[in-house]
Amino acid sequence: MFSTYPGQVVVDHPVSVPIEHRFDPYVDNGGTLLSIAGEDFCIVAADTRQSEGYSINSRYVPKSVKLSDKTVISMGGCYADCLTLTKKIQQSMEWYHHAHGKTMSTAAVAQMLSIMLYQKRFFPFYSWCILGGLDEEGKGAVYTYDPVGSYERESCRCAGSASSLIQPFLDNQINFKNQESQRKQLTKDQVIRITKDSFTSATERDIYTGDYLEIFVITSKGVEVQKMDLKKD
Amino acid sequence: MSIMEYNGGAVVAMVGKNCVAIACDKRLGVQAMTISTEFKKTFQATPKTYIGLPGLATDVQTLAEKFRFKVNMYRLKEEREIEPRTLAHLVSSTLYERRFGPWFVEPVIAGLDKENRPFICSTDLIGCINFAKDFVVSGTTSNQLYGMCESLWEPDLEPEELFETISQSLMNAVDRDCLSGWGAEVTIITPEKIITRTLRSRQD
Question: Are residues B147 and A171, on separate chains, in Cβ contact within 8 Å?
C-alpha cells in the first residue's frame, strides 16, 4: 500500500476536480543570429528561416532591422515579440529625434533597449537581442541582451538555436582563444568570410537554421546588406 | 538534471589521410563540483583501435572493463585482433542488451582496420551506430563540438594537421561548457605508431 502524507485524501471512486486550461503565450520561431565588432565596422548577420516545431513558416523572414545609419538590431526567439519590440524601439528613436534634433547613438539605443526589456520583467519579451553598430568614436560595437534586459558590450556574440555551435568557433577565430599567435585586427572581408563559414556549418547541423543569410555591414559610409543562399533542407 | 549531464565530459574523433584521431577532456564532476582532473575517457581496445566513453562515470568505468574483457575473449577465441567495424557492432549489441535500463554512455570508436583504412563511428546510449566519414562527437559538449568540427574539419588532413584540428575543436568547444574541460588528451593513430599528447587548457 502506498504511503500517504498529512492532508492527503485517498478515495476509491472517481471525483470531479477543476482543471485549469491555459494558453501558452510563447512560441519559438527558431533561427540564429550573430554580430561581430571590428576596428571601424560592424557585422550583423542572421538566417531568414522562420519555423514552428518541425514546420517551416517561411523561408524568407528577415530577423535584422536597420534602426539608423549606425545601428542595426537583430532578434531571435518569438517573432511576434521581436516585431513589437522593434516597433517600440523605432517609435522611441523617432520621438528622440524630434525632441533632441539628432539620431540616437548606438550606446543610447543599447541602454534604452535594456530598460524596455526590464519593463516587462514579469511577462517578458521572448526575444534574444543583439544590437550592432558604430559607437561615437566610429569603432564597432556589439551589445548582447538576455530576454529581461541584462546587457553587455562585447566583441562578438551569436544567439539563437545554433548559438552553442557557432560561439566556440567565434571564440577561436575572432578572439584567437587557445591559439598562441595573437594576430592583427581582422579586416572586414575576413570577418565576412568567418560569418559565412559559421552559418554554413550551423546550417548543416541545426534544423532551424538555413534558407538564406542576410549580412548587414555597418561602416562609416552607412549600412550595406548582402544576401546569400544557405541549404534549404 | 539529466543523468547524462551528471558527471560531464566530451569526446570527439576525426578521420584524416590514412590516420584517425580521438580526443577527450579530463574532468570528472558531481554536477557543479569538480572531483578529478585526471579522468580520461578514451581507452585502447586493440593496438590500432581506441574507444571513447563519455557519460555517467560509473558506466564509463564498468563498460571500459566489460569491453576489455570482450576484446580479450575475442582475441583468445579468434586468435586475431578485433576489427574496428566488428568492435562497433560488439559495442552496439552490448548496449542494446540493456534496451530498457540502459548504460548511460554514448561511445565513440576510432581505429584503423587490417588494411590501415581509417574508421570512426559513434553510438547512442542504446546502440544505434552512426557510421561517419568525417567526424563524430559525443558528451555534454556535443553541440559545441558539432559547430567547431563542421567549421574546422576538411578531408585528407595529415597526422600533424589532424592533431591541430582536433585539438582546436575540442579545446574551444569545452571552453563553452562548464561541465567539461580541465585539460585534454589527444591520440593520433597512424599505421606506424600511436601518439598520445596531453593538452594544457583553461583550468576552469
Answer: no
Report yes or no: A184 and B164 within 8 Å, Cβ to Cβ: no
Does this model's pTM top 0.80? My answer is: yes
Q: What is the largest CA-CA distance in chain A?
A: 77
Closest partner CB to A164 (pick from B147, B151, B152): B147
Residue for grid cell 578521420:
B15
What value of ipTM does the predicted structure carry?
Answer: 0.91
Please judge whether A167 and B173 are an interchain contact, meaning their C-beta atoms are less than 8 angstroms apart: no
Return the beta strands (E) in chain B as ranges. 10-16, 19-25, 28-30, 33-36, 42-46, 49-52, 108-112, 118-123, 129-131, 135-139, 184-189, 194-199
Nearest to B147 among A178, A179, A201 (CB): A201
Q: At what angle do helices B142-152 and B159-174 cross, to 10 degrees?
A: 140
Contact between B151 and A169 using a beta-carbon 8 Å cutoff? yes
A222, three cell numbers: 552607412
Phi, psi for residue A122 in degrees, rounded to 5: -105, 10
Q: Summarize pLDDT for B114-152 with one digit per residue, the tens.
A: 999 999 999 999 999 999 999 999 999 999 999 999 999
Whether A164 has its CB under 8 Å from any CB of chain B: the answer is yes
Could you give the CA distance from residue A140 to residue A42 in angstroms, rounded to a whole number?
5
